[in-house]
Amino acid sequence: MKDKEIVIARKDIDNIGYSNYLLIDSPYISNPHIRIRYNDDLRCFQLAAFSRNETRVNEKVIPKSDFTNPQWTNLSNNSQILLTAYYTEI
C-alpha cells in the first residue's frame, strides 16, 4: 500500500484530490463509508465502518464507528466485504 490507510467513499467532488481514496459512484456508499489500514503490531488489515448503511465482513454486521474514534475490526485472509446491504422487497 502506498498510504497507511485506504478510505472508501462516495464519488464526490470534495474527495477527488486524495491519493488514498477509492471512490465509488453509488448513492448507497457513504462519505466516508469505511477505512482500511494495516496494523503493524498485529500484522493484519483492519476495517472501521462509518456508514449508516450496513457494512458486513464475512456476513457479520460491523457496527458504525465515530470517525474520530474508530472501532477497528481485524480482517482475516480472503475476507469478503459488503459495503451496503440495501435490499428491496418485491
Which terms would index this structure?
37% strand, 90 residues, five-stranded mixed beta sheet, 0% helix, globular, mainly beta
SSE diagram, text form:
Elements: E1 5-10, E2 21-24, E3 34-39, E4 44-49, E5 55-57, E6 60-62, E7 73-75, E8 81-82
Parallel strand pairs: 1-2
Antiparallel strand pairs: 1-3, 3-4, 4-7, 5-6, 5-8
Describe the structure.
By secondary structure, the protein is mainly β. Helix content is 0%, strand content 37%. The chain is built from no helices and 8 strands. The protein has strands at residues 5-10, 21-24, 34-39, 44-49, 55-57, 60-62, 73-75, 81-82. A 5-stranded mixed sheet has the order 2-1-3-4-7, with no helix packed on it. It has a 3-stranded antiparallel sheet with strand order 6-5-8, with no helix packed on it. Strand 3 (34-39) and strand 4 form a beta hairpin. The protein starts with a strand and ends in an 8-residue tail after the last strand.
